[in-house]
Amino acid sequence: MRHEEGGFSAGSVLLSFLLGGMVGAGLALLLAPQSGVETRRKIRELTEEVKGKASDYVEHAKEKVTSTVGKGKEVFEEKKSAIVAAFEAGKEAYEKEIHK
């Protein structure tokens, strides 16, 4: 994830929060006074919940990256034509100056 000026990106913070929550919940389940069957059931439920949230996060990140790349391509194409036009104009002016 990208390092922002003076801190971490929102995605980094969210991922750290989710991982910290998973570790904390796992420890709480393992240390809680309940049967092994009940503990395994809770761990399985927690795992499914975290997998769903992580999947949603990854999908959102993919959408954001795709959108950003698309916008970058558009800007590049816009600037590319302006640069080519400026280069051609400069080239023509240079050739006129040489042939004087």
Describe the fold and architecture.
With 100 residues, the protein is mainly α. The chain has one domain (3-98). The chain is 85% helix and 4% strand. It is built from two helices and two strands. It has helices spanning 10-31, 36-98; strands spanning 3-4, 7-8. A two-stranded antiparallel ribbon has the order 1-2. The longest helix is centred in the C-terminal third of the chain and has 63 residues, at 36-98. The radius of gyration is 27 Å and the shape is rod-shaped. The mean pLDDT is 80. This is Gas vesicle protein.
Protein topology:
Blueprint (H helix, E strand, L loop, with lengths): L2 E2 L2 E2 L1 H22 L4 H63 L2
Antiparallel strand pairs: 1-2
Helix pairs in contact: 1-2
User: How does the overall form come out from the CA principal axes?
Assistant: rod-shaped
Q: Estimate the strand proportion.
A: under 5%
**What kind of sheet is the major sheet?**
2 strands, antiparallel
Which structural category fits the helices and strands?
Answer: mainly alpha
Low-confidence regions: none
Number of helices: 2
Helix proportion: over 70%
Mean pLDDT: 80
Helix-strand pattern: EEHH
Taking the alpha carbons of the first and last residues, their distance comes to 57 Å
Whole-number radius of gyration?
Answer: 27 Å
Adjacency order of strands in the biggest sheet: 1-2
Number of strands: 2
Count of domain modules: 1
Give me a quick take on this structure.
This protein is mainly alpha-helical and 100 residues long. It has two helices and two strands, in the order ββαα.
